[in-house]
Amino acid sequence: MRTLVITPTYDEVENIDEFLRRTRAAVPHADVLVVDDNSPDGTGDLAEAVAAELGQIHVLRRPAKEGLGVAYRAGIGWGLDQGYDIICHMDSDLSHDPAALPVMLARLDEDDADLVIGSRYIPGGSIPHWPWFRRMLSKVGNFYAGLVLGTSVRDNTTGYRVYRAEMLQKMDYASTRSKGYGFMIETAYRVWQRGGRIVESPIAFTDRVRGYSKMTLTVAAEELLLVTWWGVRDRSRRLLARVRSR
């Protein structure tokens, strides 16, 4: 099974070298795709230098920073065009430990899953060293997403994912709307809507030690509005369908 690991980057020059080396060591059979949004700090250049040294690493340079969801769509499209069977994505800031990836890949087959989510909020998962307010904000956001959308996913917002390529095509990833972190909620919801099997695998999410977070209040607001819209839209459709069937 041809496997691709996608990581989006913007100003991650302090982390990208270590990330690529640790990922290549963890999954030597997989290829890696760096989707760089024209980082002014030289992330793309350094990624290409490491790629030339290690091999099996590709760099997709985008003209501008348009959001995490846009970068992931570009990377997934590249991966599907290249014929990969399994597509993973994860953060490049080392908050996602590449050592967890072999376990997540194994669970794809062991649990006959379409999507394996690296989860912080199931037994065995953790978010060490997070301040209480950030922990609370994340848990409330995930609880709200699950409640409104009606799924059983405990960690809707994590970016550590392993997908079967056929499921990405089946759920029409290219038509997703989210520009930011809402992309994770939207894709998991689409897998669930199409009857896909979602499995959560515990991970420890370690906050970055170098660089800066790309999460903003604007991004968080987009997540909240999109989740609310999807929930209202789909509940209205189901209600209308029941009325028409009477």
Number of structural units classed as domains: 1
Shape: globular
Distance between the termini: 48 Å
Strand order of the largest sheet: 3-2-1-4-6-5-7
Under the CATH scheme, which architecture would be assigned? Alpha-Beta Complex
CATH topology: Spore Coat Polysaccharide Biosynthesis Protein SpsA, Chain A
Helix content: 40-55%
Following the backbone from N to C, one meets helices and strands in this order, namely: EHEHEHEHEHEHHEH
Largest sheet: 7 strands, mixed
Show unreliable segments. none
| Number of DSSP E strands | 7
Q: Oligomeric state of the chains?
A: single chain
Q: What integer is the average pLDDT? A: 90
Class by SSE composition: alpha/beta
Corresponding CATH superfamily: Spore Coat Polysaccharide Biosynthesis Protein SpsA, Chain A
The whole-angstrom Rg is 18 Å
Q: Count up the helices.
A: 8
* Amount of beta strand: 5-15%
CATH class assignment: Alpha Beta
Salient structural properties:
alpha/beta, 7-stranded mixed beta sheet, Spore Coat Polysaccharide Biosynthesis Protein SpsA, Chain A, 8 helices, 246 residues
